[in-house]
Amino acid sequence: MIVYIYSIFFFIIPPKITIPCISISSGDNKPVPYVTVKRKNKAEGLFADENGRFCYENLSLGDTLQFSAVGFQTIEKSYQDLLISEKVVLAEYIMNLEEVEVKKQRPKTTIIGNYRKGKLSYNSYAPNSLLALASFIENSEGISGILKNIKVGVFHDDFAFRLRLRFFRNTTDNLPDKRDLVLENIIVDTKVKSQFVEIDLEKYAIPFEKDGIWLSIESIGKFDENNILIPNKMGKFGKANYNKNAKIKFIDSLSPYVKYVKTKSLIPPYMKTWENRWTRIFKNEKSNYAMMLDLNILY
Question: What is the pTM of this model?
Answer without folding.
Answer: 0.83
